[in-house]
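Model it.
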Amino acid sequence: MRKIASLLTMLMLFSVLAFAQTRTVTGTVRDNQGNPVPFATVTEAGTQNAVTSDANGNFSISISQNGRLAFSATGYNAQTVSVSGNTATVSLVRGEGQLEEVVVTTALGVRKQPRELGYSVAKIENKELTRATPVNVQNGLTGKVSGLNISTTNNSVFGDTRITLRGIRSLTGNNQPLLVLDGSPVPLNQLSRLNPNDIDDITILKGASAAALYGPDGVNGVIFVKTKRGTAGAPQITVSNATQFENVLFLPKFQTQFGSGSSVDASGNGVFDPFENQQYGDAYDGEIREIGRPLPNGTKNMEQYSYKPNGRLNFFETGVTVQNSISYAAKNFLLSVQDANITGTLGGDKNRRTTFRFNSGNEYGRFKTNFNISYTKQKSNVASVSPYWEVFNTAGYIDLSKYKNWRDDSSFASPNHYYNEYYQNPYFIKDRTRSTENRDDLFAQAELGLKVASWLNLTYRASTNFRSNDYKNTGEAFTFSNYAHNISH
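Modeled.
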């Protein structure tokens, strides 16, 4: 019995000594400017014991009492340090002559070095994306990725675009890539609801082989968007404003020699017609001519018969886009608000988008959690019938800005007295037919992760995308006067 007790005592002593010989060291890997170095390799010197720092440069490793730590990362000089205590912060220096190789996000959010991939990917960092303060993400991506074609389909206050990767694959089917937001597939038009300042980076997976894990949805490629999670250092408050002005630079090319008319005389010369939209009349001579019909009181509409280069352009206004953003980033979370207020070059068109976002993430040893929620409120008011055809059918000697106040029945701008008998006043068209919309977008996501081994991670992700739209189309009634009715008959 005494021998057994002695043996148990010795085993307990050996266990205590063995336990005392290891310790857990936690810390952060940074560069020489104080920024975190993500996914650096932290190794106990002389052993195979190694871990990888997270996206914020944080690490945790168990080493022997006298163990030393070796730090390495792509593009940085390796460094080995002695650690006293249970915390360590190391600063790596970028190696001279080394190319900075980025870590890219592949299918399902797996992050790898480019040299490990057998297919083409492209990564866009936030600084490059927001350099020109774009009002939406797709405009920020324009011209930055080879094979990514972003074409504007509507240059209004919405700035609608069409996105394709490496050409068109189907004549009748969908050719647009899949959008993955923080690991969750969402509709592609969600890209225009995002605040560009909230994005950490965007990875473009080109072609079917790069996005094979997404199945047929990824056959046209994938745009993988990763939003910010906060800052590893001290809390940061960021306030920004961007104001942009927009003008119509030019219109389709028109002839500049002849005015209103649709017929020719016996000599083959154009005949002037003061009511006509076609422009086959006689040559401009600079004289003052009467156009249209007089007002009921006998007042005549007189115009100088000479080409006005800005006559049609004066119809358009200066568009203004004002973006105000504020964000608060602390350890493991981000709270941001952006308000984008857009008025278009077509008078009266406006679109206001307000986006709120909260992102949070944390690690508890082998267990990791991420949660984010964003809400976008968008209100717009635009012309539901385009007036451009009426603008194009305005003779070159007409200054359209003179016909803006069409509600004044005593003016030549009123539909009762407008000079053109074949096309309406474009101001009348854009002002009386309007389309308003209230849109609410909500995106929420929760993610749980467990690191089972250095080569195996388990992830559970759930997300929801809710959208509500309220449309209203209105057409303002207009009653023509008896004077206009008598003329039409």
